[in-house]
């Protein structure tokens, strides 16, 4: 099971949501006295894609640095 599947299932099972911290709410246009606000929720797939991308980049960096270490140990 991938880590993104684990995180996704936990968030869904707990009923949690993600929101945009930089712009958390939007004021909805209303005619009347009291305005309504909407939370700017972020779709779960954006989080999961970002996690996968970061893990792939980290894995590539680790495999690249391991290859360099092997070359240096062979030359040393």
Structure characterization notes:
By secondary structure, the protein is α+β, with helices and mostly antiparallel strands. It has one domain. Helices cover 58% and strands 16% of the residues. It has helices at 3-14, 44-75; strands at residues 18-19, 25-28, 36-39, 41-42. Helix 1 (3-14) runs antiparallel to helix 2. The protein is elongated, with a radius of gyration of 22 Å. The mean pLDDT is 83.
Keywords, please?
elongated, two-stranded antiparallel sheet, alpha+beta, single chain, 2 helices, 76 residues
Brief description of this entry?
The chain has 76 residues and is α+β, with helices and mostly antiparallel strands.
- What is the percent of helical residues? 55-70%
Shape summary: elongated
Largest sheet: 2 strands, antiparallel
Count of separate DSSP helical elements: 2
Distance between the termini: 40 Å
Cα gyration radius (Å): 22 Å
Structural class: alpha+beta
Q: Roughly what is the average pLDDT, rounded to an integer?
A: 83
List segments where confidence is low: pLDDT < 50 over at least 5 consecutive residues. Answer: none
How many DSSP E strands? 4
Strand content: 15-25%
Total tally of structural domains: 1
Sketch the topology as an H/E string, one letter per element: HEEEEH
The strand order across the widest sheet is 1-4
């Amino acid at each position: 099971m991938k880590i993104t599947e684990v995180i996704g299932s936990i968030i869904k099972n707990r009923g949690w949501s993600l929101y945009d911290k930089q712009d958390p709410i939007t004021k909805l246009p209303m005619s009347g006295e009291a305005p309504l606000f909407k939370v700017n929720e972020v779709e779960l797939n954006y989080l999961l894609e970002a996690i996968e991308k970061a893990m792939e980049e980290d894995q590539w960096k680790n495999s690249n640095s391991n290859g360099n270490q092997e070359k240096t140990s062979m030359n040393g």
